[in-house]
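Model: You mentioned two targets. I'll fold them one after the other.
Researcher: Yes, keep them separate.
Model: Target one:
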Amino acid sequence: MSAYDELMAFTRETEALASVAGRTGWDQETMMPAGAAEMRGEEMAALESVLHARRGDPRIGGWLDAAEAPDEVGAAQLRLIRRSHARATKVPARLAVELARVTSVAQGEWAAARRGEDWAGFAPRLAQIVALKQEEGAALAAGGDAYDALLQDYEPGTTAAEIATLFDALRPPLVDLRARILDSAATAPKLSGEFDEAAQMALSEKLAAAFGYDFTRGRIDKAVHPFSSGSGTDVRITTRTDPADPFNCFYSTIHEVGHATYEQKVDPAYLLTPLGAGASMGVHESQSRIYENQLGRSRAFTTWLFHRMQESFGDLRIGGPEEFFAAVNRVHSGFIRTEADEVHYNLHVMLRFDLERALIAGDLAVADLPGAWNDRFAADFGVAVDKPSNGVLQDVHWSVGLFGYFPTYALGNVYAGCLHQALRRDIPDLDAQMEEGDLSAALDWLARNLQRHGSRFEPRDTIARACGTEPGAEPLLAYLEEKFAAIYAL
């Protein structure tokens, strides 16, 4: 075997083990009994110890020095293996294992604290996680910015300064649009009533199928915080139900299907290699957001959904498809990021980006986090946070150590705006198809132009290749202005 072949064989085994670790994480959030948390922490730590050792194996350096890429795909494989190896050699094994153990246990503790509104009980654990992530960021940065170093795990090639510049461009138009909507005399109806949770799950499965989810390679379960897990031939999603709010279930499902079908549509030749997953979390989020919003909340698709909901739940007390479209896109200053409308969503993300950046820099103490969160939320949303589960305890991310993840949500929205503009250019009769519940043309376009490539290209290049232009904020802002100006008669 050549050095390249030996390296790829070794890497496939590592990817297979990482897949097992991912499945273990999925089980922890869906099926694992609560009493197993401590043992699961030890199991996750053991898996991470093996994975960290393999990713930092000294033989990889020798193989990389000797390997010759057989083609452009091979060159991309080597680029990602080199990046992974460099990261693993910078982070001490002790630290990697401790992070895996602590964050595994913390996940259950966060869920309990969220249920019990117990910020004080969870704060010491979060302080421990922040300290570990600061140490990890410093090891990766080697004298540079620790937050930038952590960000590379989610959006390679991007810096916090670049993200801050993008957010500075987004924030004023979003705040202005929000103000004009809330000052408008026009209103959007709010769905009301009780909606059977079993019926929600049944319609959720129909929606997943409509958006191309392959149930022979996946399944839907419930979780406190919806997520997607896995790649290739085993990609699972979760959703949640609320008898008073079926949109929470339906759009959580569509969102996670966007993530899942991205993984399912990656070229099968890349399975169990570094190319066999999404290019970045920002690109991943572009798929979940375009599925959920530009497609799923469009006037055309909500016309189809309106009739399906009538079949499932009877009279919705909504005047018709046009009122239903407005109800789906109703703008309001809610507490919860995952339930936020498109106008408010990025403001939620910007809040978290600034706070987690300050935490990693040491400019904000964990003890002061609720106050900082509540002050910022009141300033941006005009509402006082009433309890921790609506504020600092609402998201799972920090409890599992995902510092640097949050800004990719807004990046995903920006990328989705660019993709939607290009998709509309190439499929002029898209609305007529979606009114019939037929999303195949849009899904085929995304699969062909983006999803099949997996991680072959760098994130921004992945978007630029699909769109034919470099990504920017303008298409997203234009889309939001056009959509909500129509709904609220601005």
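Model: Target two:
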Amino acid sequence: MTKATAIAGVAVLVLAAAGCGKNSDGGDGDTKAGSKDNCVKADPDKKVGMAFDVGGRGDQSFNDSAAKGLDKAACELGLTVQTAEAQDGEPESAREGRLQQLVDAGFDPVIAVGFAYSPSLAKVAKANPDVKFAIVDDAVEGKNITNLLFAEEQGSFLVGAAAALKSESKNIGFVGGVETPLIKKFEAGYEAGAKAVDKSIKVQARYLSQPPDFSGFGDPAKGKTTAEGMLDAGADVIYHAAGGSGGGVFEAASAAGKKAIGVDSDQALTADKSVRDTILTSMLKNIDVAVYDYLESVEKGDSTGGPIVYDLKDGGVGYSTTGGQVDDIKEKLDGYKQQIIDGEITVPTK
């Protein structure tokens, strides 16, 4: 690690209040674990580090879901927490430096949120074999690495079915943040679910950036213009898997009087209040559950590393019903869900 890289890592570290950190809405919080009646007092010897992807806390989606699990574990297990956040357009050395700085500060385990950390996590974990690591959304090999994975295609199938059942134009859209194998799983499941309802339905798909450019996860303006193009081309329901860029998709759909589908979190609860009514449903990816389960296993000494996959059967993915906009089709969606769980439907990942 060069001195410049180390300094870069320090520059982007964000010290979260011990135990609870920032509020889930992205605002700064100074509440420490133990200050709430239901929180265990923070133990300075139980130090957990988390490195967020682009957008960080306050993205109302992917990172916030991970933060929710971290905050719950901090409160219930009495953990001292420090977080750091990736910056748009940063070099790989910055991600590596960020993880190493958390290690150097004595944080163990260290959780990386997002597949973009894969190369740097592999290096840092190998260089620090006595430290426990976890990564969300990718399978990185290492005896001291736990991979928190999800069957995104299964949850996406259900919201794809919802989109097709609700679409009046028989034309729907998908906006992906960055065109990677992971985000292609969302698209594949979404299209399969829609086609299960109506084989003739049109599915438009667009991506906001290409790797190694990960700005597509934090560019609401681009998300908005991309969604506007789909709406102009006849789409009346648009699903996004684009992190913070999804806010722009919601704005476009709201302005056009059409519907949108959220991702990762129940975005009818987390998105800006001005656009919540346009959110038909959200594909729930319970990263918070995975993060909490992992930290609890570390606390109990049961963490063994390797892949852990969360799917429909164990509640790792699903769909939201907030707002009641899918209540009339819930029976059909739950029917598809059971068929997937029973193996009667195999959802594609490509």
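Researcher: Noted. Anything on target two?
Model: The domain at 152-285+320-341 is CATH 3.40.50.2300 (Rossmann fold).
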